């Protein structure tokens, strides 16, 4: 198992109104780091597309947060592939403060997507061998999500714009989180921070469609869905007051 790490200074434009690093930015920086490791091992995203017409796609996150990185804080991020099976690859990301304090951990599940046919494909040994990780027979059991209460659910519509689309031709995975938490409102988001997040991507969202973000809060946990006629993503977030 090979570990890749780098230092990162949190810029102003990746910080929210509370001065914390935005969760979508955390996702984007983490994926950038995994891409850099792949490049260093000779199996970059460009190589993967040119050789197989495949791309990596995240299907699930589980995030444990001690505290969020702050604006202008220099942090260290490390990532390593933990294991894989015939269809799923598992990777962790760990964020540290300058003093070595662990800030947050992201456990992620990836699949390989055939770009032309838009379908998940079998994991090729040649693609994952450079990461020196273990092949396992069992799948990691995903989180079982709670249901939204139709009597208390909050809904908000969003239109998918050009800048929401990434190079894989679908809505970037970080955008879903923006849509999900927006119905909770400024007052709540200004006084609370997440400490545990489960996020699952079910079906791609493409350019030009309208999506419905549905959120429901019970005690200190919010439940979320992104929907069109289909279900596209769901999340469960445990919050605490700042």
Key features of this structure:
242 residues; alpha+beta; Thiol Ester Dehydrase, Chain A; twelve-stranded mixed sheet; 5 helices; 12 strands; globular; Acyl-ACP_thioesterase_NHD; hydrolase
What does this protein look like?
29% of the residues are buried. It contains five helices and twelve strands. β3 and β4 form a beta hairpin. The protein has helices at 23-40, 45-52, 125-128, 173-181, 186-189; strands at residues 3-9, 54-65, 74-84, 89-96, 102-114, 119-121, 134-135, 154-159, 192-201, 210-218, 221-227, 231-241. The longest helix is centred in the N-terminal third of the chain and has 18 residues, at 23-40. It is an alpha+beta fold and 242 residues long. The radius of gyration is 18 Å and the shape is globular. Strands 1, 2, 3, 4, 5, 6, 7, 8, 9, 10, 11 and 12 form a twelve-stranded mixed beta sheet that branches. Residues 3-131 form the Acyl-ACP thioesterase N-terminal hotdog domain. GO terms for molecular function: acyl carrier activity; fatty acyl-[ACP] hydrolase activity.
């Amino acid at each position: 198992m090979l570990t890749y790490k780098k230092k990162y200074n949190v810029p102003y434009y990746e910080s929210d109104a509370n001065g914390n690093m935005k969760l979508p930015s955390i996702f984007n920086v983490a994926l950038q780091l995994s891409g850099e490791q792949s490049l260093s091992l000779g199996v970059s995203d460009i190589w993967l597309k040119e050789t197989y017409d495949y791309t990596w796609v995240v299907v699930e996150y589980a995030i444990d947060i001690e505290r969020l990185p702050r604006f202008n804080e220099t942090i260290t991020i490390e990532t390593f592939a933990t294991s894989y099976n015939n269809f799923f690859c598992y990777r962790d990301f760990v964020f540290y403060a300058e003093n070595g304090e662990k800030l947050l951990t992201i456990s992620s599940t990836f699949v390989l997507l055939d770009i032309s046919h838009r379908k998940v494909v079998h994991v090729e040994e040649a693609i994952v061998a450079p990461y020196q990780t273990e092949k396992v027979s069992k799948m990691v059991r995903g989180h079982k999500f709670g249901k939204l209460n139709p009597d208390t659910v909050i809904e908000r519509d969003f239109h998918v714009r050009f800048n929401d689309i990434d190079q894989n031709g679908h809505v970037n995975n970080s955008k879903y989180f923006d849509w999900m938490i927006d119905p909770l409102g400024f007052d709540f988001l200004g006084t609370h921070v997440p400490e545990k997040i489960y996020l699952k991507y079910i079906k791609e969202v493409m350019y030009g469609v309208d999506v419905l973000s549905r959120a429901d809060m019970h005690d200190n946990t919010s439940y979320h869905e992104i929907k069109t006629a289909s279900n596209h993503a769901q999340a469960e977030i445990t919050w605490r007051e700042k």
